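Page header: ASSEMBLY MODEL / two components / 545 residues total.
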Amino acid sequence: MSVSAETASPPLTAAPATELARPSDASRLARLREPLIALAFPLAVLVVWHFATYGRKYGLIPPPSEVALALYDLAVGGINDDAFSSTLHIHLIASISRVYGGFGLAVLAALPLGLMIGRIPLIRQLLDPTFQVLRPVPVTAWLPLAMIIFGLGPRSAFFLVFLGAFYPVLINTIFGVRSVDVRLLEAASMLGCKGTSQFFKVVLPASLPAIFTGLRLGLGFAWVVIVVGEMTGVQTGLGAIIMEARQLSRTEIVISGMIVIGVAGFVSDRLIVLIGSHLLRWSPNHG
Amino acid sequence: MADGLPILDLTGVSKQFELQGQRIEALRDVNLSVRKGEFVCLIGASGCGKSTLLRIVAGFEQATRGRALMWGMPINGPAPDRGMVFQDYGLFPWLTVRGNIAFGPACRGRPTAEIKDSVERFIALVGLQRFADAYPHQLSGGMKQRVAIARVLANDAEIVLMDEPFGALDAMTRERLQDELLDIWQRTGLTVLFVTHSIEEAIFLSDRVIVMSPGPGRIDSQMQISLPRPRDVSEANFNAIRRELSLKLHSPLARKAA
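Prediction written out in full:
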């Protein structure tokens, strides 16, 4: 075997390259560059916002400083001491549990459905057209019907979040299963792997990147629809306080709620990306 | 040569495709018999049906007419005794080198200890010890093709079917892999059916070269290569054979011989 010559200059790139890029001050500075650039735009927005709103009487939009105070009061209290003070954790937990609950239900339903629609022609013919027609119906349009079917309260909220997360997971799972490289199926059957075991050992892992994209989009949508979901008359939740603050013209609370949803959605997306890049470290496009 | 059953026996194999409403005759009346341990190359212009022939032997395609037998039994779908090495590798990207080689034996329910042993043995055979835990996307083309070869060998393939396996590799890697393949072939007593469009590769590797011609795909002629191994591509006899084969491949008159 004369393999030494080729293996001596290994094109093994991915793993060692990241390990090499460690210390040195220059690279540390380079690593700070990106978050600094990312902060520049929001800071600029803050400045514009401040000068556009600060010191105006009867302004409908509060300046950033007022929002910051409201956010602080919402989180720990001690400033306004009203109904909103120090209630953030209650609303945050309520929303998180609805987002993840609805998302979890959506995954439980959409994943097996997507796998079957992608793999079994009869099921595809039976269900796919219906889903294609239902898909463009916006979640907000479902609101009245959800309230009739599930009543006022958290069950409707769950349902709407579920709906928001369902289609991205379903569509991407179908896409993933249907776009498995035929060559891999041939390779598997030539190696003696057929039928059900081929499904679990080849189809499933091969469609994992697409499924993961669906999960990520689905979780994102779950956060997007949480406000609509909590318009169903629930007492707690970030959507609920936004709706309540709106009725009381407490715009600074509305904006605080928006900020918290944004941050929570962002953190939750980072988490799923982290999990995904661990599971998909074999994939040149992830990992 | 005639001692007992051939490992592979094709009689009157024809294949027709339906492509956009048009009938395409990919193979017409192909007869081919391969002895155990033989290294046979299929060569011909594109569209001569050499890949289709290989895929029929692999069991990916069914012959429209004729019989394809392995050890006298009809070929019925793909199976581990006929291992395929694809030009585009067909490795499972989510498995490491080790995982790819262990895939077949694991699917067939071999005992874990046995799988481990044979995986290490075949990793060593193709010289990939240092890359055993790498994923396919981290490997060069030559390394990927080594994994693909090890994968079918570890799965007890009796015939290795290779569809232009080195076609996508650079010349240096290609030559090295040809040497390695011959080395493995000589040590293991495998039977190899090798599709190529390179005359030199065919003469360098094989015991017998099957020349195919297109429209419809069929066997044009055969040539036994009895040069001693290791073969020297620049030697006079090698060149004589190369010239002869080249004439057979390129001259339309040669088809009369078939």
